[in-house]
Amino acid sequence: MAVIGDSTASTPPTPTRGSASRAPVGTAAEPHRRPRRKRGSLLPVLLVAPAVILLLLFTIAPAIYAVILSFLQVKVGGGLLGGGGTVEVFAGFANYVSTLVDPEFWASLGRMLIVAVIGVPLTIVLSTVFALCLDAKRTRLVGFTRLAIFLPYAVPGVVASLLWGFMYLPATSPIGGQVIDYFGSTGIFFSVANVAVWGVVGFNMVILYTAVRSLPKDLFEAAELDGASELQIALRVKLPLIAPAITMVALFSIIGALQLFNEPTTLKPLANAISSTWVPLMRVYTDAFVNNSIYEGAATSFILIIMTVAATVLVNVIGRRIARRETK
Amino acid sequence: MTTLTQATGASAARDAGPRRTRSGLHIVPTLILIVGALYCVLPVLWIVIAATKTNDELFSTPPFLPEFNGGFWTNMQALFTYNNGIFGRWALNSVIYAIGGGILSTAVAGAAGYALGKYRFVGSKWIFRLIVAAVLLPQIMLAIPQFLLLAKFGMTNNYASVILPQLVSPFAIYLCKIYAEASVPDEIMEAARIDGGSEWRIFWSVGSRLMMPALVTVFLLQFIGIWNNFLLPFVMINNDQLYPLTLGLYGLMIITGGQAAQYSIVIAGVLVSIVPLAILFLSLQRYWKIDLISGGVKI
Predict the structure, then answer these.
(1) Chain A neighbors of B35, CB-CB under 8 A
(2) pLDDT for the residue numbered B286
(3) pLDDT tens digits, residue range B19-60?
(4) B137: closest CA among A34, A219, A56, A33?
(5) Which of A18, A32, A63, B223 suits a disulfide with B102, CB 3.0-4.6 Å?
(6) Domains contained in chain B, CATH given
(7) Would you state the pLDDT for residue A103?
């Protein structure tokens, strides 16, 4: 995560004035960088305790439990005692193997990637263009358009999907659903991506706009004096400088795509093209709740979590490399 | 829309002044933004219009013209009396989940962020590392494992099962930590100590106040995150009296999915669940500090 790296690096140093006046008392400069806990005050421990306990109970424990489940299998007991009950037995990597050899798993991953390949670049390009337009010198209606583009962020994904669902549906469509097949085998990818882009573009635009606004103004003034046009300033000066923020937007979008669930699930009753295992997360849900095979569902969840973490790290590394090249 | 374009034209002309070298080109950004605004607003506008139509009108009248034959009230009445007024119950549940979860998770994040940002104690470094690592864990993907674990202890299908897993947001704790570091000066804490203030009083009356902008931002982010959440209540709750709006509307869609005769109820439900939140949220917009999210802490 770009933010984390940047901000921990720029941890504000404690003011030198303060430590200078205290310098003769202390033995070294180091201990004064932060206030030491005062005679073992328990307060910080108490303050951090709820977060740590909740984190362990509701994030770490479920993750570990999912890993354990993913290595188990149900065997029908029976034999001489004739109980007929079920017991959980160690299954090794069987659940992982059965997920990984299932062509439907790769198909669901492929469909998710298609939606991502349409949606992620669109989100990044649109939010960047909108942010740069908002910051352009003689733009009008800044307040109104910014608010309007931000509006869909207040609409829950499920509600946005229903809203667009009716826009796509031939019977009610105001945007030519009678002619264009929004729920067709190709159209569906664009339809789902569109709902997702519509929901997040405003939020990302605001993040990028804030990043542009925090750049030092004299940079643009210098470029302007050198005769650079508004467009050149936007593309050659502002754009490279907000590269770290764009990386973050890319990261949010990619993670969002991996977690694609709400939009296809909500559109499913309207669109026959969407199956119950259309994207990986829908497959996990179907495994765990429809097919009652929580063990395979847990294995698939864990595979997805690993993929998300890998994607996060990858985007972060690439983003940093780009940012470093730009600053050179 | 005509008024808008006139306004742009007029102001552009006023602005043009002496340096009008590349004539007209500077309205391009404004035009792009207007197109973007239309893309974002028109679907919402259409749902407002569609909600004024009875079911028959929905399929027979021009899509972007409202109807005034009492369709709006018929739809609202049908929505709020559906299944003994369960829609109102869903709306109330959403408010409970979002406000309750929002306040509690902000308190948890604020306290932890303050402790990690302003104190060094045994294990504080490791706790912070754990939190940074947890930022990477996708919360949505944990919903099903969370259900499996809670189900083992019979703790699903109640308010707590939806609120508790959303109480700790590693990203919110991280934001609060960097904000506390930057906005609560050591000098003020030191001065309060010399005046005999207890550590708790320093936190409560100095630290938490200085952190207020971050706390408001975290609250709004959490509120919206919980309000919009679908998968967690979807797996945790199977009693429709406990559904939030998102799940209720989805259920309504599933039930009425096959029957075009019921579309107007769902459309009315979509409208009712958008408008109040959009108003609340756009009016609170100035209190956000989104620059917190984009990394640089500026005070």
Answers:
(1) none
(2) 72
(3) 444 556 678 899 999 999 999 999 999 999 999 988 888 878
(4) A56
(5) B223
(6) 27-81 (no CATH), 96-227 (1.10.3720.10)
(7) 93
Q: What is the pLDDT of residues B248-292, one digit of tens each?
A: 999 888 876 656 667 888 889 999 888 878 887 777 777 766 666
Q: At A227, is the pLDDT very low, low, confident or very high (cuts 50, 70, 90)?
A: confident
Whether residue B30 lies within 8 A of chain A, CB to CB, comes out as yes
Q: Does A82 touch chain B (CB under 8 A)?
A: no
CA dist., res. A280 & res. A303, Å (int): 10
Q: What is the distance in angstroms between the Cα of B84 and the nearest Cα belonging to chain A?
A: 22
Residues of chain B contacting A152 with CB distance shorter than 8 Å: 40, 44
Q: Please spell the DSSP secondary structure of A185-209, one letter per residue.
A: TTHHHHHHHHHHHHHHHHHHHHHHH
B61 touching A (Cβ < 8 Å): no
Separation CA B222–CA B33 (nearest Å): 28
The answer to whether A193 faces chain B, any CB pair under 8 Å, is no
pLDDT digits (tens, 9 = 90+) for A30-57: 444 455 444 568 899 999 999 999 999 9
Q: Give the H or E element holding residue B50.
A: helix B28-50
Q: How confident is the model at residue A250 (pLDDT cuts 50, 70, 90)?
A: confident
CB contact under 8 A, A136 and B26: yes
Residue B97 class from Cβ within 10 Å (0-12 exposed, 13-18 middle, 19+ buried)? buried
Residues of B within 8 A of A136 (CB-CB) are: 26, 29
Give the mean model confidence (pLDDT) for residues A236-247: 87
Q: CB contact, 8 Å: A65 with chain B?
A: yes
Contact B119 A4 (CB under 8 A): no
Contact of B186 with chain A, judged by CB distance below 8 Å, is answered with yes
Higher pLDDT, A80 or A170: A170
Contacts of A193 (CB under 8 A, 6+ apart): A115, A118, A119, A122
pLDDT in tens, A107-141: 999 999 999 999 999 999 999 999 999 988 888 88
Classify domain A102-327 at the CATH superfamily level.
MetI-like (1.10.3720.10)
- What is the token pair recorded at B40? 């974002």
